[in-house]
UniProtKB/TrEMBL annotation:
Assembly, per entry: Homodimer which binds Holliday junction (HJ) DNA. The HJ becomes 2-fold symmetrical on binding to RuvC with unstacked arms; it has a different conformation from HJ DNA in complex with RuvA. In the full resolvosome a probable DNA-RuvA(4)-RuvB(12)-RuvC(2) complex forms which resolves the HJ.
Required co-factors: Mg(2+)
Annotated catalysed reactions: Endonucleolytic cleavage at a junction such as a reciprocal single-stranded crossover between two homologous DNA duplexes (Holliday junction)
Alphabetized UniProt keyword annotations: Cytoplasm, DNA damage, DNA recombination, DNA repair, DNA-binding, Endonuclease, Hydrolase, Magnesium, Metal-binding, Nuclease
EC number assigned by the record: 3.1.21.10
Lineage of origin: Bacteria, Bacillati, Actinomycetota, Actinomycetes, Kitasatosporales
Protein name in the entry: Crossover junction endodeoxyribonuclease RuvC
Function, in words: The RuvA-RuvB-RuvC complex processes Holliday junction (HJ) DNA during genetic recombination and DNA repair. Endonuclease that resolves HJ intermediates. Cleaves cruciform DNA by making single-stranded nicks across the HJ at symmetrical positions within the homologous arms, yielding a 5'-phosphate and a 3'-hydroxyl group; requires a central core of homology in the junction. The consensus cleavage sequence is 5'-(A/T)TT(C/G)-3'. Cleavage occurs on the 3'-side of the TT dinucleotide at the point of strand exchange.
Family label: Belongs to the RuvC family.
Cellular compartment(s): Cytoplasm
Pfam families noted in UniProt: RuvC
Amino acid sequence: MRVLGVAPGLTRCGLGVVDGAPGRPLTVTSAGVLRTPADADIGHRLLLIERGIERWLDEYQPGAVVVERLFSRYNVRTVMDTAQASAVAILCAARRGLPVTWHTSSEVKAAVTGSGGAGKAQVGAMVARLLRLDALPKPADAADALALAICHIWRAQALNRLQQAHAAARPAPALARLWKGAIR
């Protein structure tokens, strides 16, 4: 399985491509950061991110895309900017019919380090170790994207089984209407 991890950001958008399967060695294919000028208008910055992600999708042909799910209590502006970059990544994947999954940073940290509260340095060190790299991936946004891809590779089978079980547990539409009518 080849996965493109996206650590969204308006100024720096981390990208990482990892090949692997659960229980097998992982291989980094590429890691990097898309940068946009802070003084450019939002439309231009999003267009630069879209073009960059499209280039990565063309070059690396991933089978899935995983995007960091955002959470913040305090800095709404940062969350909005990051959410816009995230939406661009989702749109690029959807345009190609690629499945998109989201993981929170704490899910990724727990999957990669064993602790949902791990710091960036610890995540970077574990990413380097898991991918058998000589040095920590730089900048941290690239390491975050690789960690997202690793997390997805390790969790994809379990998520698929959970989704299938959930779909199988849903009553058929006619049965659901009948059930609703019986409750009234």
